[in-house]
Write a structure and sequence with these properties.
The chain is an alpha/beta fold and about 300 residues long. The protein has two domains: about 180 residues, FAD/NAD(P)-binding domain, CATH 3.50.50.60; about 100 residues, 3-Layer(bba) Sandwich (FAD/NAD(P)-binding domain). The chain is built from seven helices and 17 strands. α5 links the parallel β11 and β12. The two termini are about 25 Å apart.
Length: about 300
């Protein structure tokens, strides 16, 4: 199924929700993608936000923000994004974990920063020597070799399915797999070995990854391990579109004062644009990004008529 929108917002934290509120009030058709629980605010407590005199849980703030965005007309889709590309007509084509496709004239990246380390023995020492954080980037290095994928979300599940095209054997290690029914069905029908209820205790190897040790003592011999925790990161999704990163760290999306990236129609707001990691900054940037993305979408849709 294809869905048509003016503005697609990737991320349902404070930056994404504020962007949605401002964009939809300009009469733009707005979709917010992603799970609220993925926001770093979800388990936090806020007491340093302007005009707030008591401590409020992040979960409460996000619930209020979602309800507010929906009240104004935004569509909230609790789905992760698997891939994104640009169509010849200028629209962004976004593939969701349900296999549905969303078309949008503009996109706002508001997915926060990656916090995807396992922090287990052997991980740091073997980065680049078999430990990877990006299936799309490194799958070809493991052709006809056994590999493991670690994670509970859509990035891990879709990564395991992608690796079936190159690797000789796939082990998906997850303590509690939380994906759409579509992804779960694809995994069940595939040749991937799913180790449910398990976590990685350590990564073994001297000059390269040789095996992973699970929490139950099981040892799985692999040549590589892909750590894909949560949803696909904004950097990973945007890289194929040629998005420029902060030249000093190469960790954040570079934007101007209008929250524009170097790619026309693609905006970013919140933690993905760099520190400080504060809700006030995320909300302010989300406001600007929402207004600018909606304005861009109106112009592009008008040209296409």
């Amino acid at each position: 199924m294809e869905m048509d929108f003016d503005v697609a917002i990737l991320g349902s934290g404070p930056a994404g929700l504020q962007a949605a509120v401002h964009a939809v009030r300009t009469k733009a058709k707005v979709a917010v993608l992603g799970r609220m629980q993925s926001s770093s605010l979800f388990k936090a407590h806020i007491e340093n936000y302007c005009c707030m005199n008591s401590t409020v849980s992040g979960e409460q703030i996000l619930n209020e923000g979602r309800n507010q965005a929906k009240k104004f007309g935004a569509v909230i889709l609790d789905q992760d994004v698997l891939a994104m590309e640009r169509d010849p007509d200028g629209r962004f084509r976004i593939r969701l974990e349900s296999d549905d496709t969303l078309l949008s004239w503009s996109v706002i990246l508001a997915m926060g920063v990656s916090r995807n380390r396992l922090n287990v023995p052997g991980e740091k020492e073997l980065i680049g020597k078999g430990v990877s954080y990006c299936v799309d980037c490194d799958a070809n290095f493991f052709r006809k070799q056994p590999v493991a994928v670690v994670g509970n979300g859509s990035a891990a599940a879709s990564g395991a399915l992608t690796l079936l095209l190159t690797a000789s054997e796939i082990h998906l290690i997850c303590d509690n797999l939380e994906v759409s029914e579509n992804l779960r069905y694809q995994l069940e029908c595939s040749s991937a070995h799913v180790h449910s209820g398990r976590t990685v205790k350590s990564i073994l190897g001297e000059t390269g990854v040789e095996a992973v040790m699970l929490d139950n003592g099981e040892k799985i011999e692999v040549s590589g391990i892909f750590i894909e925790l949560g949803a696909k990161g904004a950097i990973e999704l945007a890289s194929i579109l040629g998005v420029a990163l902060d030249p000093e760290t190469m960790r954040y999306v570079a934007v101007n004062r209008l929250q524009e990236t170097n790619v026309p129609g693609l905006y970013a707001a919140g933690d993905i644009c760099g520190p400080p990691w504060q809700m006030a900054k995320a909300v302010g940037e989300g406001c600007v990004a929402g207004l600018e993305a909606a304005s861009y979408a109106r112009r592009e849709r008008s040209k296409a008529r």
